[in-house]
Amino acid sequence: MRILIVNPNTTASMTEKAATAARAVAASGTEIIAATSRMGPVSIEGHYDGALAIPGLLAELKERQGLGYDAAVIACFDDTGLEAARTFANVPILGLCESAVVTAGFLAQRFTVVTTLERSRVLIDNLVRRYGMGDRAKVRASDIPVLELEDAGSGAIGKLRAEIERALLEDGAEAIVLGCAGMTDLARELQEIYGVPVVDGVAAAVKQAEALVSLGLSTSKRGSYASPLPKSFTGAMSGFSPVLKVG
Amino acid sequence: MRILIVNPNTTASMTEKAATAARAVAASGTEIIAATSRMGPVSIEGHYDGALAIPGLLAELKERQGLGYDAAVIACFDDTGLEAARTFANVPILGLCESAVVTAGFLAQRFTVVTTLERSRVLIDNLVRRYGMGDRAKVRASDIPVLELEDAGSGAIGKLRAEIERALLEDGAEAIVLGCAGMTDLARELQEIYGVPVVDGVAAAVKQAEALVSLGLSTSKRGSYASPLPKSFTGAMSGFSPVLKVG
Amino acid sequence: MRILIVNPNTTASMTEKAATAARAVAASGTEIIAATSRMGPVSIEGHYDGALAIPGLLAELKERQGLGYDAAVIACFDDTGLEAARTFANVPILGLCESAVVTAGFLAQRFTVVTTLERSRVLIDNLVRRYGMGDRAKVRASDIPVLELEDAGSGAIGKLRAEIERALLEDGAEAIVLGCAGMTDLARELQEIYGVPVVDGVAAAVKQAEALVSLGLSTSKRGSYASPLPKSFTGAMSGFSPVLKVG
Amino acid sequence: MRILIVNPNTTASMTEKAATAARAVAASGTEIIAATSRMGPVSIEGHYDGALAIPGLLAELKERQGLGYDAAVIACFDDTGLEAARTFANVPILGLCESAVVTAGFLAQRFTVVTTLERSRVLIDNLVRRYGMGDRAKVRASDIPVLELEDAGSGAIGKLRAEIERALLEDGAEAIVLGCAGMTDLARELQEIYGVPVVDGVAAAVKQAEALVSLGLSTSKRGSYASPLPKSFTGAMSGFSPVLKVG
Amino acid sequence: MRILIVNPNTTASMTEKAATAARAVAASGTEIIAATSRMGPVSIEGHYDGALAIPGLLAELKERQGLGYDAAVIACFDDTGLEAARTFANVPILGLCESAVVTAGFLAQRFTVVTTLERSRVLIDNLVRRYGMGDRAKVRASDIPVLELEDAGSGAIGKLRAEIERALLEDGAEAIVLGCAGMTDLARELQEIYGVPVVDGVAAAVKQAEALVSLGLSTSKRGSYASPLPKSFTGAMSGFSPVLKVG
Amino acid sequence: MRILIVNPNTTASMTEKAATAARAVAASGTEIIAATSRMGPVSIEGHYDGALAIPGLLAELKERQGLGYDAAVIACFDDTGLEAARTFANVPILGLCESAVVTAGFLAQRFTVVTTLERSRVLIDNLVRRYGMGDRAKVRASDIPVLELEDAGSGAIGKLRAEIERALLEDGAEAIVLGCAGMTDLARELQEIYGVPVVDGVAAAVKQAEALVSLGLSTSKRGSYASPLPKSFTGAMSGFSPVLKVG
Lengths: 247, 247, 247, 247, 247, 247
Hints:
alpha/beta; Rossmann fold; 10 strands; 40% helix; 16% strand; Asp/Glu/hydantoin_racemase (chains A, B, C, D, E, F)
């Protein structure tokens, strides 16, 4: 089984971190392939960055179709382009936020997602509500710019830990979800420190991808995830045009 | 006051139709400027088309910034790229779905949105729920490809009317919202035929834009719609990079 | 276009303030007519005052029907009698709370309504939920009796500002809605001070009224807002009886 | 214990029917006093009638205060004026809809309310949602004008039974709630015919009133049901003014 | 009328306390019979204790069927086994949580439930949401083990009072619900101290039981509460097998 | 990795079917151990059967603790005893309904669960809402007694297929979830017939169990799933008592 991890931002060190996290949990027969977007922002912080990361994401998904992959993971906690990717692909596509909150839901009745910036907090809170966890999960921002997570001396981990401690104290959180792909390397250690489940989205998504492939399940092609209709695309987007059926 | 209408698909005849509808309701002091996306799909039917229409939409919003506009309307009922556009712009940005369901909410306690294809129905239903109208509005698909609305002989209007009649009979609909920018020219006639309010998103959005500008209100720059952070964008997206602050 | 502003309490200075706010935002072709209720309480603070203000409100709406108005605004943030007025009238009727929260919804994903007394807070919170904004808006009371807003020396503005500051700090509010008609004159100044959109219900409702009239839309007469059935009314209410159909 | 039943419409035969239903279920020590509103509409069908029935309702509640009652029931399924009455009174006040749906909730997980006209259906559906039963209860209209329930030859019962049968067949209803005070005499017979619990609001409200009085519980005077503040009321409403405190 | 109070834990002093509370509010013609479970835990603190208390509860309900009772109350605030008991019995079955929150709902628009341990808080919060009160009621834990309520010197009452005070101050609670059967003797005194309604579940459930019996209403046997199907039960549960129908 | 599948009913052929389904999807390193409850009902149809199946379920979980298992699956679609089991165990515990609806949620935006009897439909609908899928999933009953699924000549499959067809036609279902452990052998075939994802709970739960174990995640022991407190259990339940701490 081959699982493609696509980092929808263009920062290769984050891709590497995600790939490492993915390989650490992958089953013995699973090969992890990692790709970094080649067009778009260096990090995804808010709606604007996210929207402009989607073409780069879809380009990676498309380019690797020939080589073959059995499922793909979008390595951003905002679930950037998740719905578009699901209509595009004929394999399962997983997002970090959906995978992580679902995983936490098996372990805890109430939990808290700790993300980076305030601008991402509401965006993720909207996702959490859409995934049906609005009554069970709170979302907190720890005021860390995404790329500070790549910089050991930035003080980011201290801010993250302080916010986790507030979640445990004030929210009655029974588990913690790390709300950014760049935190993937911290999950195990934080779980040991705090003694509650700490869920990382990259790892969670890889296991969901393996599960769906093993089950012979793929995205429904009926209704909202139906394959894109053949039509003309123009300009810089012309490469994304589904083939037009002819007579 | 200048309101920019951006059609996020590349079909100029739809832009023209939307501009006409906009001008028909614009206040005397309002100038309507219309723009058609120059990169992306010819019509937006589902998540894939929508995601790939966003860069074209943002490019139009950006290019016309120098010329000046006081508010902008995204002329697609899927509210394509609405959140990204709001973070980008320092003027009010309106979407058709949000404007239309809000408008219908002043007129009726229960109403039905009639859109085109099944793949758009669930997408719009998700929007309607996010806008808080899930308990009040039902969404129906009338099985009309978007571009058939541009073709008088396609039978599209018959299908649309049949679905409106089902909404009145089965849903207890007190008003109808037309769920596609391509239906904008039909609202008045359908309102006369059925004797209930029929709300068109283009017209509704223009009036909301005028209202916000008159009120001296613009998108909040605090929290989820904060301006994009300065950072590097790569490849085909490099033109979208917010300027990096220096020193 | 003529828009009738009815103050459902009997305090003429509040009517004057609302009319001034309305005129400040009205389009050039819009005439604002203001009316003060002649029966009912001097201010509306809670359910009791509100219920007993409705006949006075409806009387004003009725009396001015002959003179003609194209839409009406009920100048109380509790949306007093809004549903009854909508069944009565054959023109659009706007409430301040519904207009303001809808307007804020175009500008911010999360916002806070700051109202007067605790007894009004829950009432408005119920409205906010009914309008579908329960997940997005918080309601706060600032412990100001309504009529203190008419008294410059009352300290009311200090209390209001303190509560706005708490909303920004604790709620992550991206915009503020002023939750009382008596605060209408403060919106612009507070917006400048705090740098977030500050929405006033009177102004918002006037623009919604203008929008609906321009769009040729009026309250649905099908279903819950159907015109009152002809029947006999007794006692002090006899003047409100719809005409009985004969033969 | 004395329970006051106030019919907020002016039709004495409906009051009589409600009083009979109340007496049939009252405990041995409970005295039922019935009052008919003396100002307002002959029946309550929709928001307009309901709003204009409130002063008459409050007048009856007020006038009988001297004589004494331990709780009051508002004998209309729209829970007309319920919140205003609760702020007014220092005894428990019950509405039919709230009492009936709560009662049905002890007996069934899913149930259907069958009311009279379409215009009342949405109004009651809104109440049902506010009372937290939106996921469990469906509301249906049987197209019966309220006063037809007073006329044995009107065919009203046939329409009501047809709608109950649809509820059982199509909704999976486990119980039925009769959604109009005028149906109070039919509950027992319909329960025998259909073999599911049939809940009448008048009877349910009387038992809730008895329960609250026995428990020594009354409406909270903290927050949203706090007593009306002393202030001046004008015109036809002047009799409703709470006394102004004097220095 | 005979009402059976079953304490689903095995602590007889709690049964006694509940029976005393029940008798204090029972109508003159109501006989209270009390039973203590003879298999299961000494107190119910969380899901595990609750699940294992159900057979003991059902055994008591079953054994007393021959003697006759007209309704039963399950004397635990977790509504332990409520749904199972309702399918079993052909009389009304009441739970403390459902009865108490419904009762509070007639008295207050916002209220707080104060329970014992954190592990019970989320469990009760889930119940409160299921009963439709999620938007109106908050649940707090006061960190009191259940059996400390039986021990006057434990300091439990101090903790409970501190939590009630936080509810009044921070939640805007208009009423308090005591969230444990072991608190039943404290309601009256706390109501006097704090001047807001304080609802005890035992008392509330007794009155609901009386109400349903008086109304001739019993649990629906259609749908989710239908009587258990005749089938074989094995092992320690064999005594619970409904009789198998024979040819 | 060893995964324990516990069938909470006492029908060994259903256990066998579930174990076969589990082994068919288990990873190469996963050993499936199957256990059949030895006390309780032969099938679980509704709340009564479910509640009385929990001790038998917990007994199997307990007895096999010494032998060791890394996760357990409760092989009933009603998620019988899931919360109690989670407090008991220090390994992940999975239910079929939660696992299946979560799995379907990765594949489809709208889907339908098809279960057996009407009495189970509402029970499962309540679960689906609790798991946050109430807006996305509909539940249908196909009127099949559980044990008919064990009888090839019963016509059960015909009824099931008819209900799936209604779901596709009337609900706009994009995927189907099989709502009974006894349907586990039908998923693959039905998926081929209907061309939409068909999710079986047993298989889904096994993969979730594998995922959680691989991720080093287990049920939170903080808050609602905290380990049972040491206390005395009496009578037939005495074997379930957690050990009392001494000194």
